[in-house]
Amino acid sequence: MKKLKVATASLAGCFGCHMSLLDIDERLFTLLEKVELDRSPLTDFKQFGPCDLGLVEGGLCNAENVEVLRELRRHCKVLVAVGACAINGGLPAQRNHLDVRECLTSVYGRTVPDDPELPLPLDRVHAINDVVKVDYFLPGCPPSAEALWHFLDDFLNGRTPHLGHGLISYD
Amino acid sequence: MKGTFTLDGSEVPFHEGQTVLEAARDAGRYIPHLCAHPEFEPHGSCRVCTVKAEGRMAAACTLPAREGLAVESATDELRELRRGLVQLLFVEGNHFCPSCEKSGDCQLQAVGYALEVRSLHFPQLFPDRPLDASHPDVLLDFNRCILCELCVRASAEVDHKSVFALGGRGIDKHLIVNAESGRLADTSLSVTDTAVGVCPVGVILKKGRGFTVPLGQRTYDRAPIDAPPEKAGKP
């Protein structure tokens, strides 16, 4: 059977969701029999290829996050928001009731970095479904390894994933 | 007077004066709800307990049980409506569950889990709501208020202090405390008041108790809110 292509991205997140994915332990072997990783922090490829599944950790706090997300959406058939930050902005969104200029000046004083290579911060941290269509949401901070595996197992076997008690969690 | 009505096709007994929600609860049948509490008069404001009776939507917590009434609750239509209501409650406030010490004991979360609410669907408002940490024993985090008025009712009816009230109208409605300064420290609230323990979410918090019970071992970690009564999480 042809392996499914899976890409992952970490936007404004903490890599906790990726760590939780690694936390499925020996089931990683079962997973890798069925999927091939495309661009992902785990492969360090620089470009997305055509993918069956995209897993997004983190929300959108700057212009680069938006660009990567749109690129990933263009390349994958099914896009999944993984974790609190992708779903509702999460902890980075706690700055959303503050003015972004005030945030920056209170941290950097008068020397706010303005190197052209630095992506511009957005005025608000956004959930990813503010910008692209999202096909499935997997909440949690992070979603547990069990929840991630439950989702992947259902997805790989063509079932609609349902998260019951103990698997659905907002924290 | 006693009688029976049907809930999703099966009979539920009731006695005179009971609402549909009360009779269902006594019969061990779960109808999702947030602002209803067995010890207080029904309020009918959150609408999460909306059911369909004789073709009309009604809040189960205020709908009087009546002989032969056919009540629908566990339908896709009502589940979808309740999910929308819960999502609206989430987007109106700032509900960052990962940083909330009520997580795992929170009824809004538990109802969200029971309805499998996995996304917020609506744009978030991100209101600016400062905390009130003035009281020595109780913290108020207004970011999580769902305007259920349980603290208002408890403080007025049980504690006889009327420490809490809702001020404003519409989207500006918010919880206020009864002191000229607006600070909780300047009210007669005591940490032992019924109003302190009744909050279904993480607004009224006892200081210094946040993580006495570790995450993962809390009320709704042990059993879901919609489990049969002998197992269900009780706040």
Question: Mind explaining what this structure looks like?
Answer:
The complex is a heterodimer of chains A (171) and B (235). Chain A has helices at residues 16-22, 27-34, 63-75, 84-88, 100-108, 145-156; strands spanning 4-10, 35-37, 51-57, 60-62, 76-82, 121-126, 136-138. Chain A has 171 residues and is of the alpha/beta class. Chain A has a single domain (4-156), classed as 3-Layer(aba) Sandwich (Rossmann fold). In chain A, the strands form 2 sheets. Chain A has a 5-stranded parallel β-sheet with strand order 2-1-3-5-7, sandwiched between helices. In chain A, strands 4-6 form a two-stranded antiparallel sheet. Helices cover 21% and strands 16% of the residues of chain B. Chain B has 6 helices and 9 strands. With 235 residues, chain B is α+β, with helices and mostly antiparallel strands. In chain B, the strands form 3 sheets. In chain B, strands 2-1-5-3-4 form a 5-stranded mixed β-sheet, with helices on both faces. Chain B starts with a strand and ends in a 13-residue tail after the last helix. Chain B has helices at 20-26, 76-92, 107-114, 150-158, 194-197, 219-222, and strands spanning 2-7, 10-15, 50-53, 56-59, 70-72, 138-140, 164-167, 174-177, 204-206. Chain B folds into 2 domains: 2-74, Ubiquitin-like (UB roll), CATH 3.10.20; 83-209, Alpha-Beta Plaits (2-Layer Sandwich), CATH 3.30.70. Chains A and B meet through helix 4 and strand 7 of A and helix 3 of B.
